[in-house]
Design goal:
Layout (H helix, E strand, L loop, with lengths): L7 H15 L3 H10 L1 H11 L10 H10 L7 E6 L5 H13 L4 E7 L2 H9 L1 E2 L1 H4 L10 E3 L11 H6 L2 E3 L1 H4 L2 E5 L13 E6 L8 H13 L1 E9 L12 E4 L5 E5 L3
Parallel strand pairs: 1-2, 1-7, 2-6, 7-8
Antiparallel strand pairs: 3-5, 4-5, 8-10, 9-10
Helix pairs in contact: 2-3, 4-5
The chain binds S-adenosylmethionine.
């Protein structure tokens, strides 16, 4: 994981906080994270950036809207670095509306805490603002609070709608470190959606990750990145998709 220089003081603060909680100096803490996987996981949880939103980069979703109806069979999608699930559920809404032969989604992230939020699929109405009106039917309102004693009042303002069972049955969340992509046990996929994740890796790791993602794509499959994330990357099996404002590639060779 690479953090920009601008985040150095944040990084140092978070590591110092973990050292303080563990009661260790820097070298002892350094040794601890190498042998204690739970502490390593906790440190990762504290360091990663989970910012996300529904339909965060609209042109990428518009591209998929256009392409989804043309897949000849079920569409299998991987939402890479899914954070708290907004990206994944946006893809699920889109796939349900436009894939002609069914779909499934595998969503992964390194952080177990965000995956737990994603799995619940409970969000505030404020978060639904970015969902285009035509997909709002997928947001199912939670029943209104009847008695203050049964539900904490604050939970009603922060989590007041949920993703319906129909979509939930087609989506699987899975903890996975992108640095292990070569060992990913996934089938050949039609769409890999990887946005705002590669920025946390060194340039040469990004290339290795992208090459490994290509191996998971079926012929005709799409790799959708965030715009500007990896402009100088090319691969002999991949052809750039021309769609305004997006950075996407299609697998054209096995
Ligand atoms: C900024 S969020 C992007 C979320 C979503 N893709 C989007 O564009 O809105 C980056 C996510 O990548 C995850 N991440 C960072 N390093 C990772 C790694 N090595 N393996 C898997 N996920 C990772 C973080 O936990 C975080 O949830």
């Amino acid at each position: 994981m690479v953090l920009p220089e601008i985040q150095r003081s944040l990084f140092e603060r978070r590591v110092r906080e973990r050292m303080r909680l563990c009661g260790l100096d820097v070298m002892s803490y350094y040794h601890l994270v190498q042998v204690h996987s739970l502490e390593w996981q906790q440190l990762v949880e504290d360091l990663v950036v989970h910012e996300t939103a529904f339909f965060r980069h609209l042109p990428s979703y518009e591209l998929l809207e256009q392409r989804l109806p043309h897949f000849g069979g079920a569409v299998h999608i991987w939402s890479v670095g899914c954070s708290t699930g907004e990206e994944t559920w946006s893809l699920a809404m889109l796939a349900d509306a436009h894939a002609q032969h069914g779909f499934s989604i595998m969503a992964s992230d390194i952080s177990e805490s965000v995956l737990n939020i994603a799995r619940k699929g409970l969000y505030s109405w404020r978060k639904a603002e970015k969902i285009p009106a035509k997909y709002r039917e997928y947001c199912i309102a939670l029943p209104k609070l009847q008695t203050k004693s049964t539900v904490h009042a604050s939970s009603m303002t922060t989590q007041d709608w949920h993703i319906g069972d129909y979509l939930r049955e087609r989506v699987f969340f899975h903890r996975f470190n992108l640095m292990d992509t070569s060992s990913a046990p996934f089938r050949k996929l039609q769409i890999i959606f990887c946005q705002n994740v590669l920025i946390y890796f060194r340039q040469f790791d990004r290339r290795d990750i992208l090459d490994a993602l290509v191996q998971r794509l079926d012929l005709g499959g799409l790799l959708v990145l965030g715009p500007g994330e990896m402009a100088d990357w090319d691969h002999p099996a991949m052809k750039r998709v021309k769609y305004a404002g997006t950075l996407a590639y299609e697998r054209v060779k096995i």
